[in-house]
Amino acid sequence: MKTLVSPSLLAADFLNLKDEIEMINNSQADWLHMDIMDGVFVPNISFGFPVLEAVSKVCKKPLDVHFMIVHPEQYIEQTAKLGAMMMNVHYETCTHLHRTIQQIHAAGMKAGVTLNPSTPVSMLEDIIYDVDMVLLMSVNPGFGGQKFIENTIRKVKRLRKMIDDAGTHTLIEIDGGVQDETAPRLVKAGADVLVSGSYVFKSADPHATIEALKKLE
Ligand code: DX5
Ligand code: ZN
Fold this sequence. Notes:
By secondary structure, this protein is an alpha/beta fold. Helix content is 33%, strand content 19%.
């Protein structure tokens, strides 16, 4: 399978959001990744539902929404109403993760579970059958442009094995520090979807950058 690419809007030019979405629409990007932060679970605040709603009206790519917030279960209906394709919630924020995943599915979305760099993939052993995607953070969540945490490669390999052993079709997505040096190694280790913020949006030719990531297999 060719690599799926989900550019992260956090690195876009917010004064020219319409042009940035047009660029994504005309590119080979598979999805658009949107980071919601609350200043509680992570030490930063990004954007919220008004921006998500505006983008959802013009973006032709499926929305891959990453909630870095406490109590993400309170926003399932609101997210589904905007037509989001994937709702990613952090393992660390969900006391009743199984219930939250059921609710995301019942609302008509795909469910993703996100792990912080310090959370082991083994925590997913009993939920892997129920999730459509696991999003591994390869930086500490909250900011774009950070340095890739090398241990992620080992985590991808362990997660790949867990998914293959379970025989599910769960996708592995990676978020943070994905660029020309880390991306090929991540795909080789078993990653299916690459989130990329600064590497795509700050590149001289975002279309070519997305295309290069998509070619990895
Ligand atoms: C970080 C966000 C990422 C961020 C990635 O908490 O979840 O999606 O935009 O940025 P880069 O690709 O620049 O590391
Ligand atoms: Zn993200």
